Amino acid sequence: MASPIKLGIVGLGRAGWGMHCAELAGREEKFRIVAACDLFPERRARMAERYGCAVYEDIEALIADPEVEMVDIATRSIDHFAHARLALEAGKNVFLEKPMCVSYEEAYRLQDIAADSAGNLYVRHNRRFEPAFQHIREIIDSGLLGEVFEIKLRRVGYSRRDDWQTLLQYGGGQLLNWGPHIVDHGLQLLGSTFAGMWSDLRRVAAVGDAEDHLKIVLYGTSGRLVDLEISGGAALGEPEYLVWGTRGALVCRGEAEITLRYLDPAQPLAERCADPGTPSDGFGTPEELPWIEETFAVNPQLPVSLDGIWDHLYAAVREGVPFPIDLGEAVQVMLVLTAARENTPFQIPQEM
């Protein structure tokens, strides 16, 4: 195996310390934390004690460290553009926590900056490797459900949230929190080129000034709809996934179990035609359809896990394997998120 990627982590809070460091445990042959940066001295001390790495108060010093090969950015959303830009302009590889930026304009500019950099930009859409998402995608692609015409994706709950994620000045709100994950899922499940959208944003239960409830409907050139809903103000929820096709449907609750109801694709159905005659007492000619119903655990053919994105990152940097989250796809996610915010009270202040 090639040498480990020498990583410098910027932001040692909920994402950097709580997620990234935890996910890197057991991957020491692929990644070595050589530096870390945070404004809080106690966080820097914690990193130095655990990893024996260099620690810095400001990102410029970490980027200037010649030991740092890749800058892992896990700062607040509003800082992603500026921090990624600094690292890319210094020629470093960048692993950027979602959201890529806080606007399409920033994402588009960052893509251009990356194209001119000696380093590469990788966006951490780790939910692309969610087992339920992968398994459901396999079922849709198999044709078992016929022509899929509508998909519902849900991530809802109820929380009177009061942290920085409720404040627009820091890039808070569910649109940039869960939004990048679920919009990425939606665009991947469209099955065709993105053609348009409708959206609605509200603040329901959280404090602050950012949205905590949103609905986005995407549609592709094929006519398929993907209906997304993310909420911190829903006391009762719906299944995380619901897929409707012309020959069946599936539902997934809790991301652990899938239920199917479908008509055997190998069994043709009897011919039927519309009757223009005087209607009977019923609603058309009765028909008994041979439905097949089954429930099984989520278990995609190709095993995946959320922290598997690190293995893809290593393969991209050390082995030249294409990274599965194309940078253009991440920019398109930001196009949708920015369009959803247009003409709403939930505007994020930006300094370009």
Would you kindly provide a brief summary of this structure?
By secondary structure, this protein is α/β, with parallel strands linked by helices.
Task: Give the terminus-to-terminus CA distance.
Answer: 41 Å
Shape: elongated
User: What's the main sheet like?
Assistant: 8 strands, mixed
Mean pLDDT: 95
Determine the number of helices (DSSP H or I, runs of at least 4 residues): 10
Number of domains: 2
What is the H/E string?
A: EHEHEHEHEHEHEHHEEEEEEEHH
What does this structure look like?
- The mean pLDDT is 95.
- The chain has helices at 16-24, 41-51, 59-64, 80-89, 104-115, 131-142, 174-177, 179-189, 309-319, 327-341, and strands at 5-10, 31-37, 54-56, 70-73, 93-97, 121-124, 148-156, 194-202, 213-220, 225-231, 241-245, 248-253, 257-263, 291-297.
- The chain is elongated.
- The strands form two sheets. Strands 8-9-10-7-11-12-13-14 form an eight-stranded mixed beta sheet, with helices on one face.
- It folds into two domains: 5-126 and 306-326, NAD(P)-binding Rossmann-like Domain (Rossmann fold, 3-Layer(aba) Sandwich); 129-297, Dihydrodipicolinate Reductase, domain 2, CATH 3.30.360.
- A hairpin with a 3-residue loop joins strand 12 (248-253) and strand 13.
- Helix 8 packs across helix 10 (327-341).
- With 352 residues, the protein is an alpha/beta fold.
- The relative contact order is 0.15.
- It is built from ten helices and 14 strands.
